[in-house]
Amino acid sequence: MAEAADFQGTSPSPARRWLRRTGALLAGAPLLTGLVQLPAAPPAEAAGADASQAASDKGSVSVSVDTLTPGAPTEGDTVTVSGTVTNKGKQTVTDAHVGLRVGPLLNTRSGIDSVAKDSTDVQSVLGVEVGDKYAEKFDKLTPGVSQPFTLSVPVNKLDLGQDGVYQLTVALSGETSAQPWPQTLGVQRTFLPWQPDEVGTKTKTTFMWPLISTSHITAETGSDEQQTPVLQDDDLAEEISPGGRLDRMVALGKDLDVTWVIDPDLLASVEAMTDRYEVPGEGDTSVVGGHQSVAKRWLTEVQKAVADKEVVVLPFGDPDLASLAHNGTSVTGSLSHLKEASDVAPGTVESILHTKPTTDFAWPVNGAVDPSIVKVATSAGADKVIARSDTFEETGDLSYTPSAPRPIGGGTTAVVSDARLSTAFQGDMIKASASTLAVQRFLAQSLTLGLQTGRQRSVVVAPQRMPSASQAQTMAEALTILQDGTWSESQDLTAAAKAEPDPAATTRVPPASAYPSSLRKRELPRATFEQIGRTQAKLDKFKVILSDQSRVVTPFGRALNRAMSVSWRGRQSEAAIYRSGVESYLDTLIGRIRLIDKSETKLSGRSATIPVTVQNNLVQGVEHLVLRLTSTNPTRLEIDGDAYEEQPVAVSGGHSQSVKFTTSANANGRATVVAQLYTQDGQKYGEPVTFDVKVTEITATVMLVIGGGVLLLVLAGFRMYTQRKRAAAREADGRDHEADEDTDDPQNPEAAGERPTRESGTDTGADDPEQPSDPTPDTAPENAGPSGTGERVDR
């Protein structure tokens, strides 16, 4: 036991050697007594139990460490450990006690990993127990029953030596009926960093604090002026509500020296919730969301938290750089989406948080990189790529962890985060025991890293993208202890990237073959980028006809950015549903500008006008459209003297417009006509409308009949004119005759009643005999006398 308790690199003091020997004698005396009292041949059941226990690395009692304070003690502190012990076996444990044991100094980071891996192994070296004074005893532990414990030990009683990390073990010893002697039945190892004095050269530590969520907003918006956004669900409200994951991230991060790493899509989504928004209801209905106050409160808290802190902004939607590099670059237009997502990101953050963010960093999934990922990451303007040391491995013989920045050529810097520190908080942190162990392991790795060399280094911690609330709590606890500690000082990410690179550190980007297969299996497939490209092509064709393009381009552009998000990894079916929803809704909008179907049209005559109606069911007007009407048989039916005619179209929102085309027929029969909308650049828009025109040509016989009818009308008119003219002449002669009779003068030879004869020899008197050819008068004979009072005078 003395050898097991020796610290690496030190020699035990005489007092400690005496203590160890005394402990060994005390531990061996009961064992010797038990051996004397045991029967020569134990029962078979007991022998089987002994064999089973010996074969097991874990004891029959589970020990959990729920709290350890302070996490990094200094001189004069008292270390307090609390937790529970649970009898997992089938036999009652008697004469049990739980105590602390200080193990050897762990001076390597790999040594810490080994202890953490076998933290409950009762067969490993445990070290010497601090003493019974600081132990807690139990008369018995019943199977399946848990008992709490609390152990408090002054730090000077732990007999800690040189600075570094010590293995601290909580061990339960006791007896069972099958093995009636003192033995270790359960342990839990953790770590105790010991750096009581401020070090001369502190490690500069950068901790990235991510504010990232999954995609929530769809491409659909309301038809109102404000374009009410439609969310997939109301899950985001739960995350930002008090106690939610994102609420905890903000509440915890505001008191820490961290670099905020933010997806602008999250901010835009929460801002959309501050006003009217809708979420799907039952069936195809939508309901109005009701978390406006929650959204406003959360954004206000974020603004306060990031004030005077560095904010690094990711491209909008946090696109999956690795998936894009491996599966999307061969699809036309994919890189343009990344560029667009990068361009809109800083403006989004600045308008909401009122702070100017940093846009120089790209963050591939888990910091795994290869040359193609670096190329894609920098294509949108970033010149710093956040990698991780488990994929960006050292190829030299460095005995210490180098600083984060590595110049990798082309003006690009790989900022290599520390894998051990970055992955310390993964897993389920809901249990207090898991959280405590993670905190102590993080602190242990940080201190050991700092003691590796006298060179000052810049270390970056890049945790998981979307920590749970419990993981965020654990991160905050560890970081609080670290920032209050004696071996580290905070540094923002930009300063870490500008730190002097270690000349011995590798600058070679790992090849594509070294990319982790576990990550490659979860990448977005090529079909993702093909569908995004197809949707973008439809959007490009659609937007050119709109009077207000922003109402469509902005929501669909952001939705396509979200469709490339890292958050879809491992959620292929949900990702496909989201992308299909975006494309389907765009198809719906495109279909709202259409041609009205026409039935067969009959054309009687050589020319006619055919109307074609364009309907616009959008809220906004459309323009820059051309309607083409084409005759498939121009020898029978011409349109404006040719095979087709085009006319420009502009239709106000919610209206229809009829466009008229002049046609001419050359022969009888049926001719098929096709109406098709085009954009001004000649691209077809929407589905064509096809209909038949039945032509009936006018024959020569019909023309003769019509001509004869016209001639008869002319003759009838001439006859009526002649009759009226003769009637007028007779009326005039009658008036002259009456005038002659009224002048009865004796000196006038005509007064004797003689009638003079016209010189022409033609008698037109009223008493002349009627000629057979004279037309029958169509009016009654008029009265020759003066009209009486009230009589109608025909004129």
Automatic annotation (TrEMBL):
Residues 729-738, 752-761 have a biased composition (Basic and acidic residues). It comes from the Bacteria. Keywords: Membrane, Transmembrane, Transmembrane helix. Residues 47-83, 729-795 are annotated as: Disordered. InterPro entries: DUF6049, Ig-like_fold, TonB_box_CS. It holds the Pfam family DUF6049. The chain crosses the membrane at residues 698-718. PROSITE patterns: TONB_DEPENDENT_REC_1. This is DUF6049 family protein.
